[in-house]
């Protein structure tokens, strides 16, 4: 059971790490990390619809209006119909959740160091592709924005502008997403091993190798790994022996 939860946790970590990496972009000498905005949920809209965006994060389902069915995983922006306070549609999805194409990034056309433009094309609008272009403008005076400017023109094509200090180039330093992933993985493995050993030793009164969690599974993995190594070694050896025999045969025929 512990192994099942460990695998389940890793399956959920992988798409999160994918979205973290895609929101880190480098253009020339400027490095951006839009993950610094993933704790915010921005709103904007018109008289008919309200739009919500959690930059590089999952937009809270309760912010998107009422829905008779659970929302899809990976929604980073949604559309709510104001009149009925109901969920209208997804505006876009994060990378790593099976939606295509992936997010596209480029530096703000206003000039180097002025921000990032993120384009989403992985949601539908009236059964057609929805185009959402979000311009994150570097503004050091706005640390925690709450609103965004949303314009739809033509239908199903949206231009969103977000002004935030988190859209400014970052300085070197800090912990990367890959490092965070490795740390989480190591912690989970340690908890799994220690928890399993303590449970088997004191609860099940096991000794020796039996104290290891799921010893049969791990012994099977080791056995299969050794078998695979032997197979590779034998294949390489046979390949060289075959080449040697062929070369020898050609030499004798001459």
Describe this structure in words.
It comes from Adineta steineri. InterPro entries: Autophagy-rel_prot_27 (IPR018939), Man6P_isomerase_rcpt-bd_dom_sf (IPR009011), MRH_dom (IPR044865). It is a single-pass type I membrane protein; Single-pass membrane protein. Belongs to the ATG27 family. The protein is of the alpha+beta class and 254 residues long. Helix content is 34%, strand content 28%. The strands form three sheets. Strands 7-8-9-11-10 form a five-stranded mixed sheet, with no helix packed on it. Helix 1 packs antiparallel against helix 2. It is elongated. The N and C termini lie far apart (67 Å). The C terminus is likely disordered.
Summarize the structure.
The chain has 254 residues and is α+β, with helices and mostly antiparallel strands. Helix content is 34%, strand content 28%. It has helices at residues 2-22, 177-203, 215-253, and strands spanning 24-27, 30-33, 42-45, 49-53, 75-81, 86-93, 104-107, 115-125, 128-138, 149-152, 157-164.
